[in-house]
Design goal:
The protein is mostly beta strands. The protein is built from no helices and eleven strands.
Length: about 120
């Protein structure tokens, strides 16, 4: 399985960016799919996770970020609005994937990350 992110870049404070992630490979079902972010010297932080019926966000992005999935395409997107300098990080796509219909467990996969820089 591969997770490939796209959409990072440089944006001014108050601006918007949209990240996308596509999963490919042997996939029967994706249980959870979402985004983490990391900055040097800090632990990787959950940003948003889209489950089968619930989407969770970390407090600092609530009201500004919106995550959505397309189950038919095995993709997840993150719309980031009102960006702040503290949102600067490498954003990683994450997914819990079941390979087959008879799989008892899902396995965790990560993308390589996409850099988001918020600066004037």
């Amino acid at each position: 399985v591969q997770l490939v992110e796209s959409g990072g870049g440089l944006v001014q404070p108050g601006g918007s960016l949209r990240l996308s992630c596509a999963a490919s490979g042997i996939i029967f079902k994706i249980d959870n799919m979402g985004w983490y972010r990391a900055v040097p010297g800090k632990q990787r932080e959950l940003v948003a996770m889209v489950g089968s019926s619930v989407t969770n966000y970390t407090g600092s992005v609530k009201g500004r970020f919106s995550a959505s999935r397309d189950n038919a395409k095995n993709t997840v997107s993150l719309q980031m609005n009102s960006l702040k300098p503290e949102d600067t990080a490498i954003y990683y796509c994450y997914a819990d994937i079941r390979h087959y219909s008879y799989s008892l467990h899902s396995y965790s996969f990560w993308g390589r990350g996409t850099q988001v820089n918020v600066s004037s």
